Amino acid sequence: MPLSVQIPFTRFLDDQGRALDTLPAWASDAELLRGFYRHMVLVRAFDQKCIALQRTGQIGTYASTLGQEAVGTALGQAMSREDVLVPYYRDTAIQLLRGVAMHEILLYWGGDERGSAWTDPACAEDFPICVPIATQACHACGVAAAFRTRQQHRVAVTTCGDGATSKGDFLESLNLAGVWQLPVVFVVNNNQWAISVPRSLQSAAPTLAHKALAAGIPGEQVDGNDVLAVYDRVQAAIERARAGKGASLVECVTYRLGDHTTADDASRYRSDEALKEAWQHEPIGRFQRFLHARGEWDESREQALQAQVGELIAAAVETYKAVPPAAPTAAFDHLYARLPAFYQAQREQLAARIEALGGES
Amino acid sequence: MTETGKLTMVEAINLALHRAMADDPDVVVLGEDIGINGGVFRATVGLHERFGFRRVMDTPLAETLITGISIGMAAQGLKPVAEIQFMGFIYAGMEQLVSHASRLRSRTCGRLSCPMVLRTPHGAGIHAPEHHGESTEAMLAHVPGLRVVIPSSPRRAYGLLLAAIADPDPVIFLEPSRLYRSVQQVVEDDGQALPLDTCFTLREGADLTLVSWGAALKETLEAAARLAEEGIDCEVIDVATLKPLDADTLAASVSKTGRCVVVHEAAASFGPGAEIVTLLQERAFYELQAPVHRVTGYDCVIPYARREMAWLPDVESICRAAHEVMQGGEA
Prior knowledge:
Chain B: Residues 7-182 form the Transketolase-like pyrimidine-binding domain. Chain B: Keywords: Oxidoreductase, Thiamine pyrophosphate. Chain A is of the alpha/beta class. Helices cover 45% and strands 9% of the residues of chain A. Chain A is built from 13 helices and eight strands. Chain B has a seven-stranded mixed beta sheet with strand order 3-2-4-5-7-6-12, sandwiched between helices.
């Protein structure tokens, strides 16, 4: 029976940060490993700040990445600059590595379109955060098809959660990626929850990676709390795509340690015991223990990192707060390349209304 | 091409696709059966042989996907021209159109854009199976950021399709399937686009403005000819771009004639005619001699082939509405 097909599962570190086997050769690059750790710490601290900003009314609803820092960190590191990211809404870790500024991420969640008008040319072609579930998978295939048409050796990388794998957009995209041999990598952050619906009620497939098989592309699982495992496998998938060998799916098994968003209360549907158990496997603690044991991290480095992270985040928050809201008429500015005559009257009406209120919206 | 050098609308569309692909290497064509088969209406015949599989892409049978990958291609600077086989199958791609194609530019403040064209046969009257005769352009015209264009002749199909492909924003190009092969016209392959966002005045007149688009213009023009014999001088306007509307031309014409009938195949309620009538009362109320009338499809599911012609606006209905409007204001 096809369901008995074994999906590979990769894990290098146990929960205590001990290597389970010989590590890949690239793992001897101590600076790369320290970079993983630094970024995961930054992402978690920034995430806590975002939640605090939401609780104090300074940004809107926010989707926390708590516990899933390893996936984006590894993925951002594995992508090349010329690749294109087509993300979903829990991708702070990877977006920061792509070149999106922290204050731009705050602008986005703070309710400002300019939060997706990134200024760093490194991420100029990346897609904005995608909210309608799984729709971005089609865009990634379109980007990859453009690479194919132009015969460029670039890769489109798209992310989604476990719930997204139930949607037609996701499955149609997998299917196309297989039949067109597209240079696209699907990374599923299986954090076990689609708001309140657990993975067990999402699909009867033994793993989400199995869904790749029907599309004729490789699918595999990694321990998404093990940054080394994620990096190793997504890098292989990206290089495979770049070499013209087609698409693949990497299911990263993680756990959503926070609520779905700040508008959610996971205690309604998730037990404290389950959450407590999940904390035993979270990615940052185990990686810190790993680095300590290898002599590549110590207390002074930790203190310096914490101070640096605090400063970066504080500066980003200040930059964010200093950006005044755009004029209400900006809603018309990028509706079309050139605003058609039909809309001019509405734009002027709105401008007059604002003017009458003394320039305040 | 026919022996007389005249083209049908579907041939004119094919000519425009050849022209656009030859002139711009970024133009690609995709959809179901559009490659070796040349499309079920043959609109893409010859493209596959001439431009190859990298630019002429037969897709799997998945309309959401076709719409969604067009967005990804367009964001990369390609100009995808996607075909949805019939308008009744466009709905699977609606989320991609409404949530992404129409707003990629505004969501990124212009960092990314979506210069794609989605072509699909529009309207009833070709005795096709159910779901093959839809006139639901109002759904699309409601969406900010989209353009909705409907040609009504081979020449306008050629020029407007070239304009749609060149346009930097997403365009839904609705092709009246009833007109695909029913009319022939000499079409110069001059590469000249016609203007979007602009109505075309097909006939000038002083007494009454008839406003329509797509296949319904056939009956509208026939009605205008018949009314002329009775001494009623009709102006006939082809809206051509439904979104955004050329309100200036419509208001100017009705200000001149003082009377108006809007004709469309689409169902009446919340149809495009409602928007046009509202615009006219906002802009030309004091010039109106009589209430504006609508002649439209009925508010029911479009009947199957045996009864579909009874559902479409016919010359009689248009003339009847014209007579009522002509009597209004003179009582």
